[in-house]
Amino acid sequence: MAATIFDKILRREIPADIVFEDEQVLGFRDIAPQAPVHVLFIPKTPIATLDDATPAQAELLGRLLLAAAGWARAQGFAADGYRVVVNCNRDGGQTVYHLHLHLLAGRALGWPPG
Ligand code: AMP
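Above: the input record for the complex with adenosine monophosphate. Below: its predicted structure, written as tokens.
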């Protein structure tokens, strides 16, 4: 898998506003937020897209989701609500090919997405 800007964030080669870290997951604020709260959660083990994830990575995928949910709860906005998005490949709008969850919160979010 080709290195991405998220690898540089993982290696602390470029700055990021990191809000969450455990052994397997890093969470940092999106540089171009689409909501008052917009955090990206990435696996430290790179996976290019959701389409590349394998059954052997099921636990890691679960950890990503639980990291986002736990952080939202700890920040106090889980009860009001939030959205978790994974963009996959071109038509999904993916621009960085290192799997990531977008956690969006802090305003009522429209549906359907554009
Ligand atoms: P996606 O379009 O789903 O691949 O999302 C990639 C996200 O990464 C976009 O929302 C970008 O704003 C965000 N992004 C790109 N570069 C950085 C960076 N250096 N730090 C934080 N977020 C970034």
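Notes for the reader.
The helical segments are 5-10, 58-75, 89-92.
The radius of gyration is 14 Å.
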